[in-house]
Amino acid sequence: MPARLEGETMTKQPGGSAAAEFDQPVAGDPTAAADSGTTGSATAAVQQATGADRAGATGDPTAAADSGTTGTGSKTAAVQQATGADRASATADPDAVDAERDASTDDEPAAGSGPAPVPGAALLALLALGWLAAMLWSTREAINSAAAGVTAISLSAFALPGVISAALVAGAAFALSGVDLLGHRVGERATLRFLAATGAGLLIGLAAAFAINLTYADNATTNVIAGTSAAAAIIGGAVAGARSAPTVGAVVAAALGTLVFVVAFSRARDPLFDLFGAGDTQESLVNAAKWVSRTESLLAGVVAGLLAFGYLAWARRRAIRRNPDAPALRWPAYLVAGAGPGLLLLVAEVIIRVGGRSLLDLAAALSEADAVAQTSLGTSRVDNAIWVLFVGALTALIAFGRTLGPAGDDDDDDPGPVAGTER
Questions:
Q1: Domain residues for 149?
Q2: 305 vs 11: which has the higher pLDDT
Q3: Whole-prediction pTM value?
Q4: Which keywords does this Swiss-Prot/TrEMBL entry list (predicted)?
Q5: Which has the closest alpha carbon to 156: 216, 210, 234, 232?
Q6: Inside any domain, residue 413
């Protein structure tokens, strides 16, 4: 009969080296499970100790005794460790656990993170470059068709604003496409983005200057057109280095559409002159020309504002498909996008008056009529840019405001009171 001592069973044979030791609890014994506190660590220690007893029963008695002693100590240490871990987890601060979980979540990159993409950037670049090429070609044809050098100078001065505006928009569009193509390599680093955009504009400027010097007649006007075109393209590239890429894309798209509209509107000038009462007198012609110019500027501003709003709405839909949690653009973005074409026209006028000063002075010195014409054209361009700026900004804001819901509707910015709370 096995001897029992205070609830323990002694099954070791007398005379053995492990005879004085108590039997170790079996892994499936309910009593052992209670002793271990139902912890995984204690169960593993019991299994290890049981394995040691079995090894002692089938192997070297001395090794079995050592293994049994070691297993018993391991069991005790495992039980104490498991009990301490359970107490620590039971008394842990839940706020600290939540904070740690939030921190680990924040460290993971969100899906769709990174710089905002520019919808249709490559298409904008192609269209802007095509428009620049068309302006350069038409200017070259007009200059080459002149019978005398004096007429060529006058025609060059008249064509200079169109070439400068096209170069400015082309430089911005190409730089925007290049920065968008770089994507995460540029990222949110403003300095690197600005340098990359300016470099892209420099490429367009050098290409335009090379094409002008290669295809235009070799005279003083050619160098002026080439130099101012290169400067405009570089400045346009620098503009594209702004952080808000979708807003810059809207400005480029609206400006390009405005330039195309102004050229297309020239076909409606003669009917509008008759509509506004142009007659045989000089006064009637001046008044009719003033109203025609204002009508053109007003319609160009409306076109600019609608194109800017439409582009930003398209960019917003694309951003939501890419990342549903993408923040929405605020009203200042629509304001800047609508006013952007007018701002670019003002920048182009500054480039014309600074870089093309020699050509304008040369054309104004031809005759008194040419001097009056150059002054009148310069004033008209400034007025047109201001009209496009304000009308475009107002049109874009009105279009954006029509997309907003009533003030009482819930939105992301004003979620309202939480359920179950009192005001």
A1: 121-401
A2: 305
A3: 0.68
A4: Membrane, Transmembrane, Transmembrane helix
A5: 216
A6: no
